[in-house]
What we know:
Layout: H1 3-14, H2 18-37, E1 42-44, E2 48-55, E3 58-61, E4 68-71, E5 74-81, H3 83-89
Antiparallel strand pairs: 1-2, 2-5, 3-4
Helix pairs in contact: 1-2
Amino acid sequence: MTKSDFIERLAAKTGLSKKDAGSAVDAFVEVITEALAKGEDVQFTGFGKFYVQARDAREGINPQTKAKIKIAATKVPKFSAGSALKNSVR
């Protein structure tokens, strides 16, 4: 499903116009992005949790040259599905 497909389905379920549904989706993504950038978790009970996880620095291998390289420590966004979401997919 693409973003535009999602917006169409959201508009149909809520009775919003496609423009308003698109604005709501954009705002939803923006709020989650801003919260994660601040290191905050975003949790929806039953649906899941968005959070930031730290990755330690490590050594890797360049697949073209086989040379060892150092990969810097970084932070990555993660999502953990809630029980209601997991059960609906089964």
